[in-house]
Amino acid sequence: MQQTKTLHPRKRIALIAHDHKKAEMIEWAVYNKTVLSRHELYATGTTGKLIEEALDVPVRKLLSGPLGGDQQIGSMVAEGKIDVIIFFWDPMEALPHDPDIKALLRLGVVWNIPMASNRASADFLMTSPLMHQDYTVILPDYSVYVGRKVN
Questions:
Q1: For residue 4, what are the CA distances in angstroms to 111, 136, 143?
Q2: How far apart are CA 60 and CA 139, in angstroms?
Q3: What is the phi/psi pair of residue 31, to 5°?
Q4: What is the H or E stretch that residue 31 is in?
Q5: What would the pLDDT profile of 7-55 be if each residue is shown by its tens digit?
Q6: What is the set of active-site residues?
Q7: Span 107-146, pLDDT tens digits
Q8: Concatenated DSSP letters for 54-119?
């Protein structure tokens, strides 16, 4: 039997931005303030503080990415507590917590979470009619993986 979950009109959105992408994230967030203010916002450390100040809306701030914030958001994705990930990452800079970033992006794919990794994809995501209504996400079936025999 196929499992689903419903994303409600008020989405739980995770906002993450690498250091060289924070200004772009803030500019984007200000541009999208009206839409973002309709949703529940979560963010890693500094990004969350900057967004909260720029928008004057509450943001649940987690740890800074390198200190475990990426993993905290990943955990929330696995627990079904995040509906959308907007992650402006810097493709030109290797970071010491790259494995954490890859793990977060992997979990987004594993759990079929809508994700945007740059301004254009974030704009498309935020302007989709699906952002403002119930949306049924089909969850992948991992029963074969979970039920496999391990020696």
A1: 10, 6, 14
A2: 26
A3: -60, -35
A4: helix 22-31
A5: 999 999 999 998 899 999 999 999 999 999 999 999 999 999 999 999 9
A6: 70
A7: 999 999 999 999 999 999 999 999 999 999 999 888 888 8
A8: HHTS-EEE---GGGTHHHHHHHHHHTT---EEEEE--TT---TTHHHHHHHHHHHHHTT--EE-SH
